[in-house]
Amino acid sequence: xxxxxxxxxxxxxxxxxxxxxxxxxxxxxxxxxxxxxxxxxxxxxxxxxxxxxxxxxxxxxxxxxxxxxxxxxxxxxxxxxxxxxxxxxxxxxxxxxxxxxxxxxxxxxxxxxxxxxxxxxxxxxxxxxxxxxxxxxxxxxxxxxxxxxxxxxxxxxxxxxxxxxxxxxxxxxxxxxxxxxxxxxxxxxxxxxxxxxxxxxxxxxxxxxxxxxxxxxxxxxxxxxxxxxxxxxxxxxxxxxxxxxxxxxxxxxxxxxxxxxxxxxxxxxxxxxxxxxxxxxxxxxxxxxxxxxxxxxxxxxxxxxxxxxxxxxxxxxxxxxxxxxxxxxxxxxxxxxxxxxxxxxxxxxxxxxxxxxxxxxxxxxxxxxxxxxxxxxxxxxxxxxxxxxxxxxxxxxxxxxxx
Length: 403
Ligand code: 3PG
What we know:
By secondary structure, the chain is α/β, with parallel strands linked by helices. The chain is built from 15 helices and 15 strands. The chain folds into two domains: 7-174 and 387-402, Rossmann fold (3-Layer(aba) Sandwich), CATH 3.40.50; 193-346, 3-Layer(aba) Sandwich (Rossmann fold). Helix 12 links the parallel strand 13 (316-320) and strand 14 (348-352). The longest helix is centred in the middle third of the chain and has 16 residues, at 175-190. It is globular and about 60 Å long. Bound molecules: 3-phosphoglyceric acid.
C-alpha cells in the first residue's frame, strides 16, 4: 500500500477543505439526466467524514464536445439528497462567485464548484511543479486550508485539481482512494493467470493505451473486445464499414491492425452484434460486412456465449466499459450476460466503472464480484503496473505534510 496521509492524519476541523472527487456520471443521451449515482454515493462517504469542515467539492463531468459535458447542478442536488443536507451549487470554478461562496461557508456546510473542465487548464496534463503554477491553483490556493484527494477514477490524469495542491496544501487521501487501494492490494495478493480482460465502452484511445500496458506487463493473455473499441478492431479487419470518427478513433485503425498482427492469439472480437432497426427494435446480425448505416448498440448472443466461456475459464478477469448501450431498451443483453458470467466465474473478478457497477446492483450480483471499482481507465493502468499521478501526489504530500 503506498504511504499516504488519510483524513485522520490532517487537521481538518474548522478548515476550508477542497475535496477533489470524481462524480463524472453517465448522462442519458436523450433526457440529459444523470443515469446513476454510484460515484456520488461513494463521494458522500468522504464528505460525511468531514462534519466540522467547510467542504468545497470539485469534480469534472464529461469531456468537451460530448453530450455529457454539463454543469454540476444535478450532481449537487443528488448529493444533497444522499447527504440529507444542503449542497450549495456555485456556477463558477475559480472566479469571484466561487471565492465568495467559499469564504461564506460555515463549519459543516458543503458547496459544489461547477464542472472543473469548464476551465481550460483542467483539460490538460501538467508536471507536478507546473500544475501548482496554473491559474486554477493560484486563484484558489489562498481559499483552501487543505486538500482531500478522492478522485480515484481520475488518478491517471495529471490535471491541476489532481496534482496541483499536494505541494502547496496539506493533502490526504479520501475514503474512496483508501478503500480502492486496500481492495486492490488484496487482489494483487491472490491474482493468477490466465488473465482475461473484457473491454467495452467508448473511450477508444484509452482502451488502446490500456491494451498496450496490459500486454507489456503480461496481464493480457486474452482481451475480449466489444463496444466502440470492438468496432474499431472489426474495422481494422474490414468487417465494419461505418464511420468511427467521433473522437479521432479513425486514426487508431492502423494501430488496431498492428496489434491484431502482432498478437493474433490475444484478441477476441464480436462474432455477432445487435443493431437498432425501425421502432428502436433489436436485430442481431453477423459481425462481418457491417454496413455503414447500421447503428450497432450491443454484442449478439453468440458473442455473449463465447465470451462467457472465456470469462469462466479465467484465473483473473477484469471487465471495464459496457459492451453495449444498455441504457436503451433491448440493448442490455450483452452487458447483463457478461456480468452474469463474471458473477459465476471461479477466477478473481474485478469490475470497473460506474455503468457496470450500477448494472451489477440492478442484477443483484454485486456480492459475487471480488472488487467493484468506481474507476475505469485509471484502474486499467493501475492493474497494468503504471504509476498514477494522483497516487504520486499523495505520496509526495505524505513526505511533506506528515505532522
Ligand atoms: C472516468 O470516468 O474514467 C474518469 O472520470 C476520467 O474521465 P476521463 O477519461 O474523461 O478523463
